Inverse folding.
């Protein structure tokens, strides 16, 4: 109710300004008060117990400033980042656009972040806290050796993160998506796994929706060979379905409602190609419990969201979790885990 009153005010501000104010408000007022776990919603993936399957996707808390406040909003887990070894400003503004008529967002942020050392200090201050906090890692735009950047990020973040998410799918760093090609991906993952050293931090891989069937098959084979712990399906898309907003022609990654069907189909593709052998995390266009349930039944063990918060407000995670609990009961499953891939 409160958000419905505040939204018109926030929408008068540039999108990035509104986001900055939101982070500031969460820093001032966010207390980490977790919902009591509900047995039917608990999920165990990659050896991690998730109190509910609804996660905050990377991109919202780029600098690890408010993971506790987000847990307090009802998220079962939070993924911070993308973080690079050195701080970087990202692309020139404006670089974030609300497509309100389409319930969508286009961004070309460019991995703007405070850098590994600053974020690592924030995560170090949380050491001992049991909340599930993943760290999404990337490479600096001007790096001469991007694989070395991922290895360095792994060394820094493996002791601090519940899991690492290797982001090779952002469309806003030129050439980054080429790391999804089989040979490059194998070299990258070898470096990341070696850099993890003695730590057992699970490694997830975040992928683009703009993949062919042969891409999906090749990535699944690499993921299986390298024993990855999960695949995140998917990042934003460079495709442009019909859109009504005046910002439809802006460059960058499209997220929100127009991505929903594409991301769901890509999830199904990965489920089929992997035979269910690799846990999947569904992302893209999820705005309701029904959207989340469709991903779970298609094969997602967990889901993440971000863009829908712009339109639905901060209570969305808790509403989706409650709705999923009711759907589990209604369809006579004992738990979310039983529903995974049931479609």
């Amino acid at each position: 109710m409160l958000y419905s009153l505040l939204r018109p005010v926030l929408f008068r501000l540039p999108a990035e300004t509104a986001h900055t104010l939101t982070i500031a408000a969460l820093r001032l007022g966010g207390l980490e008060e977790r919902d009591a776990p509900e047995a039917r919603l608990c999920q165990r993936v990659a050896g991690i117990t998730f109190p509910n399957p609804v996660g905050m996707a990377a991109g919202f808390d780029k600098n690890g400033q408010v993971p506790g406040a987000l847990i307090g909003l009802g998220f079962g887990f939070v993924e911070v980042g993308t973080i690079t070894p050195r701080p970087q400003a990202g692309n020139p503004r404006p670089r974030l656009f609300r497509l309100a008529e389409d319930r969508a967002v286009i961004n070309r942020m460019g991995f703007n972040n405070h850098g590994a050392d600053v974020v690592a200090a924030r995560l170090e201050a949380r050491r001992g806290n049991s909340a599930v906090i993943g760290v999404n890692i990337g490479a600096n735009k001007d790096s001469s050796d991007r694989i070395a950047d991922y290895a360095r990020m792994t060394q820094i973040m493996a002791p601090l993160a519940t899991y690492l998410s290797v982001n090779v799918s952002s469309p806003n760093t030129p050439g980054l998506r080429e790391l999804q090609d089989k040979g490059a991906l194998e070299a990258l993952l070898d470096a990341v796994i070696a850099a993890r050293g003695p730590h057992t931090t699970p490694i997830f891989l975040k992928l683009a929706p703009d993949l062919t069937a042969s891409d999906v098959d090749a990535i699944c084979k690499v993921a299986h060979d390298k024993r990855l712990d999960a695949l995140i399906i998917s990042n934003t898309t460079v495709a442009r379905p019909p859109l009504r907003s005046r910002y439809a022609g802006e460059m960058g990654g499209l997220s929100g409602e127009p991505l929903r069907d594409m991301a769901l189909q890509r999830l199904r593709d990965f489920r089929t190609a992997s035979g269910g052998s690799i846990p999947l995390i569904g992302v893209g266009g999820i705005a309701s419990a029904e959207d989340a349930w469709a991903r779970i039944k298609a094969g997602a063990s967990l889901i993440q969201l971000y863009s829908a918060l712009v339109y639905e407000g901060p209570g969305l995670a808790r509403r989706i979790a409650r709705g999923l609990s009711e759907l589990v009961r209604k369809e006579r499953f004992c738990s979310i885990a039983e529903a995974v891939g049931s479609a």
Remarks:
- The chain has twelve helices and 13 strands.
- The chain has one domain: 2-339.
- The two ends are 34 Å apart (CA to CA).
- The chain has a mean pLDDT of 93.
